[in-house]
Write a structure and sequence with these properties.
The N and C termini lie far apart (about 35 Å). The protein has about 120 residues and is mainly beta. Strands 2, 4, 5, 6, 9, 10 and 11 form a seven-stranded mixed beta sheet that branches. The protein has a four-stranded antiparallel beta sheet with strand order 1-3-8-7, with no helix packed on it. Helices cover about 0% and strands about 50% of the residues.
Length: about 120
C-alpha cells in the first residue's frame, strides 16, 4: 500500500491544519491508520490511530481535545484535523497503515507515507 501524506504547512500558534493520507488501493478500507510525528533531534512519536472501520480512535495525551483522526473508506483517505496548534507540535507528520486493529507502536505498522512538515510559529 502506497500512502501519500499532504496538508502540512506553516501556521501561527492557535491555527489549524488538516492533514491527509491518501492511497489508490481499495484494501485501505480494511486497514487501521495512524499518524506519527518526528521533531528535529527527537524520535518518531505516536500521535493518533483509528480502527479500520473508523469506529474507534486513540490519541496521545498531548493532542487530546485538539486533534481529530478520521477515515473515509469510500475515498481511501485518512485525515488528521489539527486545531489549536502549538509551537511544540512542529514536526514532520507521517501517516501509517496496517491490516487489522490499530497500534500505538511505530514498528507495528507495515506501510508509511513520506511525511508532511508542520511548522507552528509563536
Amino acid at each position: 500500500v502506497q500512502l501519500q501524506a499532504s496538508g502540512g504547512g506553516l501556521v501561527q500558534a492557535g491555527g489549524s491544519l488538516r492533514l491527509s493520507c491518501a492511497t489508490s488501493e481499495g484494501t485501505f478500507r480494511k486497514y487501521a491508520a495512524a499518524w506519527f510525528r518526528q521533531a528535529p533531534g527527537k524520535e518518531r512519536e505516536f500521535v493518533a490511530a483509528i480502527s479500520w472501520s473508523g469506529g474507534s480512535a486513540t490519541y496521545v495525551d498531548s493532542v487530546k481535545g485538539r486533534f481529530t483522526i478520521s477515515k473515509d473508506n469510500a475515498e481511501n483517505t485518512a485525515y488528521l484535523q489539527t486545531n489549536s496548534l502549538k509551537p511544540e507540535d512542529t514536526a514532520v507528520y507521517y501517516c501509517a497503515a496496517r491490516p487489522g486493529g490499530w497500534s500505538s507502536i511505530r514498528t507495528g505498522y507495515d506501510y508509511w507515507g513520506q511525511g508532511t512538515q508542520v511548522t507552528v510559529s509563536s
